[in-house]
Write a structure and sequence with these properties.
Elements lengths: L8 H4 L7 E4 L7 H18 L2 E5 L19 E3 L16 E4 L31 H13 L4 H10 L8 E5 L14 H10 L5 E5 L2 H11 L3 E2 L13 H14 L4 E4 L4 H9 L5 E4 L1
Parallel strand pairs: 1-2, 1-4, 2-3, 5-6, 5-8, 6-7, 8-9
């Protein structure tokens, strides 16, 4: 059932009758932090018997509606009021989380906000089988819009069994993490896999152009409608989701350390890709 709720009061007034679990990622959270928050809350709502609500606030750093990306029929609100209504006790009628993490399947509600729980992010092949079996259905349940699905399927025809996915985060927008990117380490991958083609997703258009000029037709990248790394338009975020899904299509994934973009691509690929951290 599709219920679009623009006014938070319409469900807060009914809070004595139902119990809600609200996925409300931080306003400036990026695409993959929002996705991780959503699937975490989906599984917890199912386990606890609560009704899931998503609060998907647009911002200067994320200017895109949920419905521009996904067609799931969910109870949905856009309300900044949720942040002043936050209730921390697990026995209350509605519980809000702003997490960016994947939350353990057996987590207690009172441990979500205080971070007192096992960390299961960025483990890739080391991820516990129970966690994988729990979360794959939720990632697969996210229904991509027809436009995005069509773009992904069409571009993926350029891949073959030797295509390697590479998610290169240079951390242009995060100076404190730029030490995690090493150009020489990236170039070494190309030299070690000379029989392969490479699908590249990056936050740096300059880097993509450098690699395209150096390796020619071996480099595949989805053409952006605005510019690489655009978070301030619907088209920019849609193109990021297209990149994310294309990364998930190949058997090998070169992943940037501590990048949720790399991580969520692996999850969309049903955790089947062989991952190497770059």
């Amino acid at each position: 059932m599709c219920i679009i709720c623009k006014n938070i009061d319409c469900f807060l007034e009914d809070r004595m009758k139902k119990e809600y679990f609200i996925s409300s990622p931080k306003t400036k959270a990026g695409l993959c932090n929002r996705i991780k928050s959503l699937v975490s809350c989906m599984q917890i709502a199912d386990r606890t018997g609560k009704t899931l609500i998503i609060n998907w606030l647009k911002s200067d750093g994320f200017n895109c509606e949920f419905s521009d990306l996904f067609s799931n029929r969910l109870l949905h609100t856009n309300s900044s009021k949720l942040r002043i209504h936050k209730i921390k006790e697990a026995h209350d009628n509605y519980f809000i989380t702003e997490t960016w993490r994947l939350l353990p399947p057996n987590i207690k509600l009172e441990n979500i906000q205080n971070g007192n729980h096992e960390m299961i992010d960025f483990q890739y092949q080391e991820t516990n089988n129970t966690v994988i079996e729990t979360y794959i259905p939720y990632f697969q349940s996210l229904q991509i819009t027809e436009f995005i699905d069509r773009q992904v399927n069409e571009f993926a025809k350029t891949f073959d069994e030797n295509t390697i996915s590479i998610a290169i985060r240079t951390w242009i927008d995060a100076p404190n993490r730029q030490h995690l990117f090493d150009t020489e380490k990236v170039l070494k991958i190309f030299e070690e896999n000379q029989l392969s083609t490479f699908f590249i997703s990056s936050d740096s258009e300059k880097l993509i152009n450098l690699l395209s000029n150096k390796y020619g037709s071996k480099i595949l990248s989805y053409p952006k409608r605005t510019y690489t790394g655009d978070r301030n338009s619907t088209e920019g975020i849609q193109d990021a989701l297209i990149d994310l899904l294309l990364l998930s299509k190949n058997k090998k994934l070169m992943a940037s350390a501590n990048s949720t973009f790399s991580e969520v691509a692996w999850w969309f690929g049903k955790c089947e890709a062989n991952v190497q951290i770059i």
